[in-house]
Amino acid sequence: xxxxxxxxxxxxxxxxxxxxxxxxxxxxxxxxxxxxxxxxxxxxxxxxxxxxxxxxxxxxxxxxxxxxxxxxxxxxxxxxxxxxxxxxxxxxxxxxxxxxxxxxxxxxxxxxxxxxxxxxxxxxxxxxxxxxxxxxxxxxxxxxxxxxxxxxxxxxxxxxxxxxxxxxxxxxxxxxxxxxxxxxxxxxxxxxxxxxxxxxxxxxxxxxxxxxxxxxxxxxxxxxxxxxxxxxxxxxxxxxxxxxxxxxxxxxxxxxxxxxxxxxxxxxxxxxxxxxxxxxxxxxxxxxxxxxxxxxxxxxxxxxxxxxxxxxxxxxxxx
Length: 319
Known about the structure:
Blueprint: H1 3-12, H2 19-33, E1 34-39, E2 42-49, H3 52-66, E3 71-76, E4 82-91, H4 96-100, E5 105-108, E6 111-114, H5 126-140, E7 141-143, E8 152-156, H6 159-171, E9 177-181, E10 184-189, H7 192-202, H8 205-255, H9 263-274, H10 280-285, H11 293-311
Antiparallel strand pairs: 1-2, 2-4, 3-4, 5-6, 7-8, 8-10, 9-10
Helix pairs in contact: 2-3, 2-5, 7-8, 8-11, 9-11
């Protein structure tokens, strides 16, 4: 089972007792997976889905919220996949479900016009906003397995419905962006923490914990990698500096002789040659007298200047 499917499976177990929340969730599902048509004196509201979890959820919600008897029709496609159609039929002169959902439905030349994707009056309460977003995610949402990346999206047929999704998530402090893809408006979140917040809003708490566990493991792994890379870079820097210092000392020894250096520089050269891999702090502790890392570095710079003078590339002195 994909991560998206497991999220929807979890949401299907969410108990929505309040009728106003049931209606808000129904409105979310219808907005993104519903179609309306008229036949003679009837209004036919149909929800189509290949997801049996959504089909069962919508069927039960309609039954509970409206005491209705929706019809469930199952069709097999040539591909072998099933499509579920849940149909509710109402009389045009008594559209109970439409009125309860606060839609303004008008029969004009055999067509039903719904003026807005969902009436704001249905989403006055925070719990109803959550239910609406849950319904929208059920109908048109998906979320990537967090082990592979962070991406949650809800595919909308138009800008109005997309803007409502963005607005309702913004109420909970979640930033949702949108992009056009294949004629649809895709509302998406690509930041791990924001996806966690979105899962919390729609009620997918188990999935939220799974995502957070993955995020923690990734953060720890990334932190370890950063530390290793930093330590590796420091080691390489130390080794490269030591190699250059030893090259300078050996050049001086060959072309001038270390015995011609001052006692302090002779001691420094000897200690460096004897400890080619030691960092400056450790090297300073091996010198006689009170010479710290800064003092040792100063001596090594003098040796470098002498070597450069001998190479004929810069001026310097012999310490």
